[in-house]
Amino acid sequence: MRIAQVAPLQESVPPHKYGGTERVVSYLTEELVRAGADVTLFASGDSCTRAELDPICERALRLDPRRPDPRAPTMRLLERVARRAREFDVVHFHIDYLHFPLCRALGLRQLTTLHGRLDIREYQAVYDEFADMPVVSISLAQRRPLPQAQFVGNVYHGLPLDLYRFEPEPDDYLAFIGRVSPEKRVDRAVAIARRLGMRLRVAAKIDRPERAYYEREIADLFADPLVEYVGEIGEADKGAFLGKARCLLFPVDWPEPFGLAMIEAMACGTPVVAFRCGSVPEVVDEGVTGYCVDSVEAAVAATARAAELDRRRCRERFERRFSAERMAREYLRLYGALAEDRGPVAA
């Protein structure tokens, strides 16, 4: 099967440091190649893949010191895909809804994985207009705001089984990984650590739009001697950071679409204490891979209990539910259904 993967250009595939969508695109692409598919990846030129790479821009937009207007390379991306569309059995987009008019005009065999939150008012009109576009959710919770969308599948993210090493003996600290932003609630993580008198290590990026929030709400919290801010980390450092943690704190305050950090921790055998938002109850197996909570007080109690969970069972549950092989297999079934149900790509 000839498959195109169309990635966002903001980060490379895989990203050099933070980046959820591009990391998943990488895991999926490499697993599809391993399974024997003929895959072309449309992405930034600094991406690394065993698939054919069609580079749209020289480097990831976020890391480009010239700070280019993202609209221009995205236009080039759509045009490049349109020119090559007849080469593929299925085109798989990961760029929200920007390609919908193009796909309709060309009659492409395509589907779109929606990676972000969908409870945005303007999306209602988009999906009213493009209710014929086949889309895939990454959790059932993610779907709720858009019942009119044509969901053809729900595929949880997956990781290569050899990406992170199981760590049976953690150190005595709690971990937070992600972004410093209002919806990620690192302030809650600090409050939990303080209540327990435990160290908290924070691996997070601070985007320019969030700098004012950091200075106003978070900087003073990071001055606490219990808190160590290690900054934004890449793949090479993530395994040790998560694996040596007693517990991952995931204190989100938004409709989390999936939460890749949760399964990254589980892959190391590290349990998760997460606030019950969005996908969290679908991803966390209560009492096995962690606990779902509704308040800081409940999180404190759950974090204290998390040390009693069997880390090997946590790893085993990850292997059963969240492997890249399982993710690729489910997408291949969707690609096959699309190829059977529709005619050839329009000229």
UniProtKB/TrEMBL annotation:
The protein, known as: Glycosyltransferase family 4 protein
Domain of life: Bacteria
Coiled coil: none
InterPro entries linked: Glyco_trans_1 (IPR001296), Glyco_trans_4-like_N (IPR028098)
Pfam families: Glyco_transf_4, Glycos_transf_1
Domain Glycosyl transferase family: 168-310
Glycosyltransferase subfamily 4-like N-terminal domain residues: 18-121
